[in-house]
């Protein structure tokens, strides 16, 4: 273990470059998975004939598959069907599909938690089903799902490390490269990577707790 040799600027900068890519992948995947989650969760809640049942099967299936498998399929299998993506977008696609399905369930739970009396009152006042969903139910559900959504964001950030399997040059891939060049650097690099993950995830956890307090107030 050579902490002094490992913690020189060239190695630190190399790991920080990988971490920046980790944050980029996570950021794009979070935005896209939020959109996917709202669409899928809303369809499941509205119970459209056939469509909602198909969405339910897709969501439940993906939620019960390993994210590692989905990332591999995105990068290795989809090109066989003519869908070619760079390693960056393959990682984003895999994370988006998986996390989007998780968010869909969070949203569906939020929608189901809305007091039925509010929905009945809105309908009796002349609002249509979709107007009630758009103006009454969905805004409240989104407000309630903010804390669990942030928790899911933390999980997504950590899950980006699985993209090391497709050689995405993110943080853990850079840790592996440096450690492969000098095994004495493995532990220092892992410790440094753990610190980066901890700082960002703990900050998000504190933010989530504060939001949860405000929502419950």
Automatic annotation (TrEMBL):
<keyword id="KW-0813">Transport</keyword>
<dbReference type="InterPro" id="IPR010065">
    <property type="entry name" value="AA_ABC_transptr_permease_3TM"/>
</dbReference>
<keyword id="KW-0812">Transmembrane</keyword>
<dbReference type="InterPro" id="IPR043429">
    <property type="entry name" value="ArtM/GltK/GlnP/TcyL/YhdX-like"/>
</dbReference>
<feature type="domain" description="ABC transmembrane type-1">
    <location>
        <begin position="19"/>
        <end position="208"/>
    </location>
</feature>
<feature type="transmembrane region" description="Helical">
    <location>
        <begin position="20"/>
        <end position="43"/>
    </location>
</feature>
<comment type="similarity">
    <text>Belongs to the binding-protein-dependent transport system permease family.</text>
</comment>
<dbReference type="Pfam" id="PF00528">
    <property type="entry name" value="BPD_transp_1"/>
</dbReference>
<protein>
    <submittedName>
        <fullName>Amino acid ABC transporter permease</fullName>
    </submittedName>
</protein>
<keyword id="KW-0472">Membrane</keyword>
<feature type="transmembrane region" description="Helical">
    <location>
        <begin position="64"/>
        <end position="81"/>
    </location>
</feature>
<dbReference type="InterPro" id="IPR000515">
    <property type="entry name" value="MetI-like"/>
</dbReference>
<keyword id="KW-1133">Transmembrane helix</keyword>
<keyword id="KW-1003">Cell membrane</keyword>
<feature type="transmembrane region" description="Helical">
    <location>
        <begin position="87"/>
        <end position="107"/>
    </location>
</feature>
<dbReference type="InterPro" id="IPR035906">
    <property type="entry name" value="MetI-like_sf"/>
</dbReference>
<feature type="transmembrane region" description="Helical">
    <location>
        <begin position="185"/>
        <end position="204"/>
    </location>
</feature>
């Amino acid at each position: 273990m050579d902490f002094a040799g490992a913690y020189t600027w060239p190695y630190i900068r190399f790991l920080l470059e990988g971490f920046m890519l980790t944050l980029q992948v996570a950021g794009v995947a979070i935005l896209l998975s939020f959109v996917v989650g709202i669409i899928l969760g809303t369809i499941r809640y509205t119970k459209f004939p056939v469509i909602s049942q198909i969405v339910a099967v897709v969501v439940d299936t993906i939620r019960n598959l390993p994210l590692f498998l989905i990332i591999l399929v995105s990068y290795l299998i989809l090109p066989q069907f003519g869908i070619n993506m760079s390693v960056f977008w393959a990682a984003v696609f895999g994370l988006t599909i998986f996390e989007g399905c998780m968010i869909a369930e969070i949203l569906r739970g939020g929608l189901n938690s809305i007091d039925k009396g509010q929905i009945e009152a809105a309908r009796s006042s002349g609002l249509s089903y979709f107007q009630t969903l758009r103006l009454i139910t969905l805004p409240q559900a989104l407000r309630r799902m903010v804390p669990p959504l942030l928790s899911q964001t933390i999980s997504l950030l950590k899950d980006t490390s699985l993209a090391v399997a497709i050689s995405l040059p993110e943080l853990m891939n850079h840790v592996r490269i440096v450690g492969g060049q000098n095994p004495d650097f493995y532990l220092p690099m892992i410790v440094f990577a753990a610190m980066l993950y901890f700082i960002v995830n703990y900050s998000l956890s504190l933010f989530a707790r504060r939001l949860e307090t405000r929502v419950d107030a």
